[in-house]
Each structure stands twice: as C-alpha cells, then as structure tokens.
Design brief:
By secondary structure, this protein is mainly alpha-helical. Helices cover 63% and strands 0% of the residues.
Length: 86
C-alpha cells in the first residue's frame, strides 16, 4: 500500500492563548529563535511535552485503557442485551 508521511505542518490547530503565552511566542520570534508564531507555539508545546514525559506516559496509558474499555462497551452494544448472562 501507499504510505503518506505527514509533516508537522500538515497538522494545524487554532487556539486562543493568554497574554503571557503570546508574549513568549512573540519573544521567540523577535529573538530569531523561531521564524513564525506558529513555529514558536509548536516548539513551546513540544518543549512542554518533553519536560513532562512521565506525566504524559501516564496519560497515554490511561487513554489506551479508555479506548480498550470503549471498544469493549461497543462490542457489548453490538451483541445486544439479550445475549448477556444475568
């Protein structure tokens, strides 16, 4: 099959930020550390994820369990209540 490789620029998110966040984004651009506000925001998000690796590992594990339970519930729903042992 054909595999499509997506770059980070393919993933666009629009969000509102408070003044301190916008000031940080603009400072990164003004200092020449990042070229655009979008690039600066993406860099800040990535930095936050990297700095909180253990936290996100737990969140990802929890989300995987939620997905597993959702799939189980959906399978039960497809079977219908008449097929359950009470």
């Amino acid at each position: 099959g054909t595999h499509v490789i997506r770059s980070a620029k393919d993933n666009v998110v629009t969000c509102r930020v408070d003044d301190p966040a916008l000031n940080a984004i603009d400072a990164l651009v003004e200092a020449g550390i990042r070229s655009t506000r979008s690039d600066a925001a993406a860099w800040l998000i990535g930095s936050g994820i990297e700095a909180n690796r253990e936290f996100f590992a737990q969140v990802y594990s929890t989300v995987a369990e939620i997905r597993r339970l959702r799939e189980k519930a959906q399978a039960l729903a497809r079977q219908g209540p008449d097929t359950l042992d009470v």
